[in-house]
Amino acid sequence: MTTPKKVILLGPMGAGKSTLGRILARELNWPYIDNDLDMATQTGLTIEQLSALSVPELHKIEAEFILRVLAQDAPLISGAAASVIESEEIQSKLASVYSVYLSIPVEMAIQRASVGTVGRQALDEAGVQILRDRYAKRDPLYRKVASLVIDLSDSPENDAKKILQTLKNDH
119-137 pLDDT, tens per residue? Predict the structure, then answer.
């Protein structure tokens, strides 16, 4: 089986990028790059410090981080912060690797999002409406660059199996 050498998981907060990334990395025996943890390590900031940044500051760091991830040697599995899809440069780079859009209904994304972790700053500022607005803006962008769109179930293990099977069939 030949599979892609870089798999990037896309989707809103709460889609399960970290959970699925760990499962896929284990199954493929590839390195997993955790967006929050590795971003903290690379920036020298703690998760708490990242969580305290303004939304524009955090989005800038998230964009720089995914560009560094995409420049790394293969193989790898990584999630991408939801915000990075708004950059045309990053869209182009994501379209050139195997990007998987983890699609969940907006109401499920809202339910899963929690205040106090990286990327949730906007919830403190504007609540649920900002999540709806971001979802409406970003959903078509994720779909545009994704090699695979998967509608998530209640089982990360089953979702990972679907992704792995598609990787095998696509390559």
Answer: 555 555 557 788 889 899 9
